Amino acid sequence: MTPPLTPPAIILSQTQMGENVGAAARAMKNFGLSELVLIAPKCEWPSDRAYMLASGSGDILDAAKIYPTAAEALAPYHLVLATTARGRDVVKEIHTPEAASKRLRAAADTGARTAILFGGERAGLDNDELSLADAVITIPTAEFSSLNLGQAVLLLGYEWLKSADTTPPMRTRPDIALPASRFELVGLFEHLEQELDAAQFFFPPAKREAMVRNIRAMIMRSGLTDQQVRTIRGMIVALVRNKYRGQKKEDT
Fold first, then answer.
1. Phi and psi of 225, rounded to 5°?
2. Global pTM value
3. Contact, 139 vs 155, CB < 8 A?
């Protein structure tokens, strides 16, 4: 039996604000990540602010590991990708978030332990920390390249989950209502056609049968439910009633 795939650890270096650690934990929970590592946090730890922002992800904070240096924190991992906005200054492979997630998943499939390394809020990762990474991840942005730490973790977590997601690119909400029966559809056809006859819609009369067939085919293609048929018939009644009331006002 194939062992379950281990998601990448999220490693935060020298984080200054507990709120950002909490936001990162919440993002991790959203996308199936659970291993949080802190390198020499500059904020007070444990942090009440972190737990407030974690919003249901306190278990991740409870299990967080703390190390004094990057070398110690990264020691267990076989593949480490570091996030940085300074892509041009780094002599390493530079991945987009999507490509990075595919590489991390491919490594995890072999049983390797993987990690994503994030720098502190003020200056990011230093050169010594970057030197310990196998490659870097640069998140494409428009004019402003600085991302909040929680946002960066959220984005990478999303890409990790998406790399194995089988959700179809487009789908409709499954409707709990039953498909309309032939009896209900025929009732709709007759109701609609009766009112269209009254409004003298079918012109010239010689083309009435062809026009009726086209209208029925259009309705059939829409795959109406029983509730939708009732709604449409109610709309027809309302339109006819309001038109009748308008005519009576004109006559008076």
1. -90, 170
2. 0.70
3. yes
Residue 169 covered by a domain: no
Taking only the tens place, the pLDDT of each residue in 47-68 is 999 999 999 999 999 999 999 9
Question: How many residues are there in the chain?
Answer: 252
In a domain, 168, yes or no: no
| Residue in this structure with the two tokens 């003298």, named with its chain if needed | 200
**Which of 10, 22, 157, 155 lies closest to 73, judged by CA?**
10
Q: Which stretch of DSSP H or E encloses residue 235? A: helix 226-251
The distance in angstroms from the start CA to the end CA of the chain is 84
Range of the domain at 207: 182-251
Residues 205 and 84 both lie in one domain: no
CA distance 85 to 124: 8
Which 8-state DSSP code applies to residue 124?
Answer: B
Q: Are 82 and 133 in contact (CB under 8 A)?
A: yes
Cα–Cα nearest to 147, from 117, 120, 114: 120
User: What is the mean pLDDT of the segment spanning 143-155?
Assistant: 88
Cα 29 from chain centroid?
Answer: 14
Same domain, 38 and 79: yes
pLDDT tens sequence across 162-188: 988 767 777 666 656 788 999 999 999
Looking from the CA of 135 toward its CB, the CA atoms found within 13 Å total: 14
Dihedrals φ, ψ of 37, to 5°? Answer: -125, 135
Band of the pLDDT at 147, cuts 50, 70, 90? confident
Q: How many CA atoms lie within 13 Å of 16's alpha carbon, on the beta-carbon side?
A: 9
